[in-house]
Amino acid sequence: MTPETKRTIILIDDNAILRTIFGHMLQGFTEYEIDFHSFKNALDALDFLDNNDISQSLMPPILFVDINMPFMTGWELMDVLENRTDFIKRTKIFIVSSSTSKNDQEQLANYPFISGFILKPFGKESIYEILKKID
Description:
Blueprint: E1 7-12, H1 16-27, E2 34-39, H2 42-51, E3 62-66, H3 74-82, H4 85-90, E4 92-97, H5 102-107, E5 114-119, H6 124-133
Parallel strand pairs: 1-2, 1-3, 3-4, 4-5
Protein name: Response regulator
Keywords: Phosphoprotein
Domain Response regulatory: 8-135
């Protein structure tokens, strides 16, 4: 596959087991090549984003972001990313959470650039469906 067909996928979640399982799930996805990165907190992910221009690739990057994390919540990360207009225009962002809180569902409305909400636990089929639908 050419670099033009490679897609960057980033998972930001403080659960080490989920990060490992998610990476293994992506290995079975064959629609396009994946450059996978995972981070245990949003600060590390922001550092990566600041030092790597992933938004310039032909295929838009995809972020999967947990809500409840140490140092910076997923919502606080959304507040930071909201100011990076070029980045959020090209990036598909999905919130992943085990929270069924009405407040979290309502919070989604504050960030119209979020592409969806994925309830944990989830299987690879649901992730594959999302990845297949993204242009």
